[in-house]
Design brief:
The chain is an alpha+beta fold. The chain has 10 helices and 12 strands. The relative contact order is 0.20.
């Protein structure tokens, strides 16, 4: 792999990835266009898949603490599942995740009047009732972060359910890393994101 000299604490490889600090970022994060289109996807990311949303230990504790404040936004069946399974659970891969209803839908979700699946935690956040918005794994989607001992792999997860988001992003010409600016800063901080933008500018120059 040919390496381009590092600058601003960053190394750019002229293959498929960029290294910033302890993160290794797929070039898809820079090059793919994406903007969520909830009116078309209906929040499918909260119901598709075979496991709940990944959680940190700290997030699991916060959700348990805040549950009395956002419980009212959840369907009764979801409340029963949470009270039966717990506020978090270990999936088949050994990861800490949110509980599921019927082994499919995140228990912390509800359908709004437009038939869009929404997050009850985020609803309480926007209502000013709690300060925790939602798990960072949800906030970052469709970016997925895999944490290893020496580095974090930051990748774009391309799924059929997100095709409306791809189409919307391409129409608006919004790169994935710009659409997910807020959660990326939440995860890694302002300085890290500034270096991410420097890397993006470098890659754009290479393409010209």
């Amino acid at each position: 792999m040919k390496e381009i000299p590092a600058f601003a604490g960053m190394t750019v490889f002229d293959s498929t990835m960029i290294e910033i600090g302890r993160t290794i970022i797929s070039r898809d994060v820079f090059e793919k266009k994406f903007v969520c289109d909830l009116l078309k996807c209906k929040g499918a990311c909260c119901v598709e898949g075979d496991s709940g949303a990944p959680l940190t230990q700290e997030e699991a504790k916060i959700i348990e603490r805040d549950y009395p404040k956002f419980k009212k936004y959840l369907p009764e069946k979801h409340q029963e599942v949470i009270e039966d399974q717990g506020f978090s659970m270990i999936d088949d891969d050994g990861d800490l995740v949110t509980p599921l209803v019927n082994k499919k839908q995140c228990a912390y979700t509800f359908y709004d009047e437009k038939g869009i699946l929404k997050c009850g935690i985020e609803k309480a956040f926007f209502e000013g009732e709690i300060t925790f918005r939602k798990p960072v794994s949800c906030h970052l989607f469709p970016i997925r972060i895999t944490e290893y001992k020496r580095f974090d792999a930051v990748n774009y997860e391309e799924l059929d359910i997100c095709k409306p988001g791809v189409a919307c992003g391409e129409a608006l010409q919004v790169p994935l890393y710009k659409f997910l600016k807020e959660p990326l800063i939440r995860k890694y901080g302002e300085n890290w994101y500034k270096e991410l933008k420097i890397a993006a500018g470098y890659l754009e120059e290479k393409q010209d």
